[in-house]
Each structure stands twice: as structure tokens, then as C-alpha cells.
Write a structure and sequence with these properties.
mainly beta; Immunoglobulin-like; seven-stranded antiparallel β-sheet; two-stranded antiparallel ribbon; 3 helices
Length: 189
């Protein structure tokens, strides 16, 4: 019989819940959108930029136009094995001014934590209305609910959007997701 000393380095104190013990609905909080929202250039806008560049007033062909007051919202959906578990849920519409894009909104899903599988992911897509009321995609990405060790991920997370593309749960690769971590991602935990 082996005795483990609590002061030794072999002893690890931990506690856990199994997901079947969590009889609460899945909810997430959408806090804010950071960074610049880029718009596609129209042909008229491109002609103006070309004339400014040809006159020597601008020195680059890689200029992106930004909309100072975008009208945006977010859709989120839970997926498992490339199958939707819920319908997409939309955040409230918010007109943002002065580059401040803060929602502080809790979105609740009609599914409970105990019903999630270990490969469940959350798909985010950010949408934008332009001044002509045309809808376009700002970007999207997916985020797993559980780590590779099947531990539920909790707390604030930074989700980097794929510019101009919706969330794609069909091609989500957990291995590539965990490889793209930065030092800031570790600090934010």
C-alpha cells in the first residue's frame, strides 16, 4: 500500500463535475468586437483612390476603406460532428459609434450543457449592414467547448475572425486551432 504525502509533488488536489451534472442551458456572453472592420471597395471608390495615387497624393495600392459607424450583429450556432445542434441565434442589433463595439449581451441556447458532446463547437459569424442596407459578412470562426483533454473551457476567450468568411464548422480542425495560440491567449486565461 502506498501513502501519498499532500506536501509531495506527486499530490494534485482537484475537483470536477461531469457534464451530465450540469442541468443548465448553454449560455455565452458576447462582450465586444475589437479591431477595424474593413469594407470591400466599390468601383467608384477604387477610381477615386486610383486618381489620388496617380497624382502622388497616396503612395500605396493597398488601401482598405473603413466604415466609421458600422451596423453589425453576431450569429452563433452550436455544432457537433458537422451537424447543427441548434438553430443560429442572433445577437441584438446595435448601431455602434466612435469605434466602440460593445454588446455585453448574454445569448442562451435551447440546449443544456449535459447534452453537449466533447467535440461540440460554437460557430460565430459577424454581419454588417452598409449604408445602402446591404448585408455582408465581416468574418467568422469556430471555437470548441472542450479542450483536447475533454475539459470544459470557461472564462473569456478571444476569437479571431477569418476576414470576409462565415464560420465554417465543416472544416473546423481542432489541431490547427490549438497550434495558432499566441502568448496573449495564454495570458488572457
Amino acid at each position: 500500500m502506498t501513502t501519498i504525502d499532500k506536501n509531495s509533488s506527486n499530490f494534485h488536489d482537484f475537483s470536477y463535475y461531469t457534464t451530465d451534472g450540469l442541468d443548465k442551458k448553454v449560455s455565452i456572453s458576447i462582450i465586444e468586437l475589437e479591431g477595424k472592420l474593413f469594407c470591400e471597395q466599390t468601383s467608384k471608390g477604387r477610381m477615386i483612390l486610383d486618381s489620388l495615387i496617380s497624382e502622388g497624393l497616396l503612395d500605396t495600392n493597398h488601401i482598405l476603406l473603413t466604415d466609421p459607424d458600422p451596423e453589425i450583429y453576431v450569429t452563433v450556432q452550436i455544432w457537433t460532428d458537422s451537424q447543427p445542434l441548434t438553430l443560429p441565434i442572433q445577437s441584438s442589433y446595435r448601431p455602434f459609434v466612435n469605434s466602440t463595439r460593445v454588446w455585453n449581451e448574454i445569448v442562451e441556447f435551447p440546449i443544456k450543457y449535459k447534452d453537449l458532446s466533447f467535440n461540440s463547437i460554437l460557430a460565430f459569424t459577424v454581419w454588417k449592414y452598409d449604408k445602402d442596407s446591404n448585408l455582408s459578412i465581416v468574418g467568422g470562426n469556430c471555437f470548441p467547448f472542450f479542450s483536447k483533454k475533454n475539459k470544459f473551457k470557461e472564462g473569456k476567450r478571444r476569437i479571431k475572425l477569418n476576414k470576409g468568411a462565415p464560420a465554417d464548422p465543416f472544416t473546423f480542425d481542432y489541431a490547427s486551432f490549438s497550434k495558432n495560440r499566441t502568448r496573449l491567449d495564454s495570458i488572457e486565461k
